[in-house]
Design goal:
By secondary structure, the protein is an alpha+beta fold. It has a single domain, classed as Pleckstrin-homology domain (PH domain)/Phosphotyrosine-binding domain (PTB) (PH-domain like, Roll). It is built from three helices and seven strands, in the order H-H-E-E-E-E-E-E-E-H. It has helices spanning about 5-20, 20-40, 135-150; strands at about 50-60, 60-70, 75-80, 85-95, 100-105, 115-120, 125-130. It has a seven-stranded antiparallel sheet.
Length: about 150
Amino acid sequence: MTTQRDRFIDAMTKAAELAGDADFGKASAGVYTDNEAELLSLVPAEEHPILAFLAFLQDGNANRTALAVLLEDRLVLVWTYGAFGRKKGSTVIPFSAITRLEFSETSSSPSFGGNPEISIATDRLWNLAIPPKGTPLAVDVRDKIALAIPAAG
């Protein structure tokens, strides 16, 4: 029987394959482990994540290492912060709430290390850098979100 955890592992494996980097998969798994309880509360057991991957989230003036989980109708982000990563943060971005989606092959933010960047506008702006550079992962994520956003008007 496939467990919810197995589904997340499959989604991280798919992302690591797109990234062409096993270490990226290991780094994603580390962020998953730190945030597993929060993720399991946000993603019902019957859902199958499409991709799950490490991303850098710009949160106000701070940058967070997050796990992004791409589902059919939304993007879930979870992260830890504070001393020893004891505080948790999360958000769910329904694709129906997205008003603008922008993509750059190279982030202009020095803290994002030149990785590809996706900006998602809802009632606020979410900036995500998706490592590693030069791989199809970020483009694939952008395309999947773009296809799922309801047509305007």
